[in-house]
Design goal:
This protein is α+β, with helices and mostly antiparallel strands. Helix content is 24%, strand content 25%.
């Protein structure tokens, strides 16, 4: 069975992505790459703390 995926436009890069790989944050849609960039920027500015340890 061939499944057609639904697309959602990223408000940052303006490209369409599979809706399963698109996230909403503060009323804007983000693709996976742009969401990662946003999270890293928030961490660099001290808004969030990221812990990459394996505990």
């Amino acid at each position: 069975m061939d499944r057609k995926c639904k697309l959602k436009k990223c408000d940052i890069c303006k490209k369409e992505h599979d809706i399963a790989d698109t996230f909403i944050f503060q009323e804007k849609s983000y693709c996976m790459d742009d969401l990662y960039s946003l999270i890293m920027e928030l961490a660099e500015n001290g808004v969030v703390h990221l812990d990459f340890s394996n505990q």
